[in-house]
Structure formats: structure tokens, C-alpha cells
Design a protein that fits this description.
It holds the Pfam family Ribosomal_L20. This is Large ribosomal subunit protein bL20. Belongs to the bacterial ribosomal protein bL20 family. Binds directly to 23S ribosomal RNA and is necessary for the in vitro assembly process of the 50S ribosomal subunit. It is not involved in the protein synthesizing functions of that subunit. The protein is mainly α. The protein has a single domain, classed as Ribosomal protein L20, C-terminal domain (c-terminal domain of poly(a) binding protein). Helices cover 74% and strands 0% of the residues.
């Protein structure tokens, strides 16, 4: 009995991976074995970094809120504790935007919680 290899599916799979590797440098874009490894690694990084992006943005927002709060003589933790106690339901993303782009509005919030 002849060997069955389904070259249609194999070629489609290779084409899909090589299409994903478009734009890579050197043999990573056109040599099947190298491209396959590069694409797998890229997918792993993409999955991991979708999670890390959330962490990085939260850290950035905290830094911006801290800088804004310290201009008014408070630390970040004191400020956030008083914001929660005052019942102000603004998240860190909004507070960071106010601290950066609308300092007068941020100052009003600080004065309200002091």
C-alpha cells in the first residue's frame, strides 16, 4: 500500500507559518525550520506580554499618581487610602491621566480627600 502524506495540508501549514514570519530578518522569514521556531517563540512572547502589558501600565499609573500626590505633600499610599475612604470611585488609569494632563482637577481631588 502506498504511503499517504497529505501534502496539501502540509503545504498549507507551512504557508501559514511563513506568512506569520513575514518581516523577520534573514532565514527566519523564508526557511521552514528556522521560521517555525521563530514564530513559536514569538507567539509565546506575545501571550506572556499581553499579561505583562497590564502590569506595566498599572506600574506607570502608580508612578504618575505618586508624582502628582507628592506635589501636594502626600505619598501615593496615603493618597489612595484617603481616596478610598472618601468614596471616590476613580480608578488608577483615570487618576494618572488627571495627574498628568489636568493638574487642577487632580489638585481638587487631593483637596477633597485631605
Amino acid at each position: 500500500m502506498p504511503r499517504s502524506v497529505n501534502s496539501v495540508a502540509s503545504r498549507a501549514r507551512r504557508k501559514r507559518v511563513l506568512k506569520q514570519a513575514k518581516g523577520y530578518f534573514g532565514r527566519r522569514k523564508n526557511v521552514w525550520t528556522v521560521a517555525k521556531n521563530a514564530v513559536e517563540k514569538a507567539m509565546a512572547y506575545a501571550y506572556r506580554d499581553r499579561k505583562q502589558k497590564k502590569r506595566n501600565f498599572r506600574a506607570l499609573w502608580i508612578m504618575r499618581i505618586n508624582a502628582g500626590a507628592r506635589l501636594h505633600g502626600m505619598s501615593y499610599s496615603q493618597f489612595m487610602g484617603k481616596v478610598k475612604a472618601a468614596g471616590i470611585e476613580l480608578n488608577r488609569k483615570v487618576l494618572a491621566d488627571l495627574a498628568m494632563n489636568h493638574p487642577e482637577a487632580f489638585a481638587a481631588i487631593v483637596n477633597k480627600v485631605k
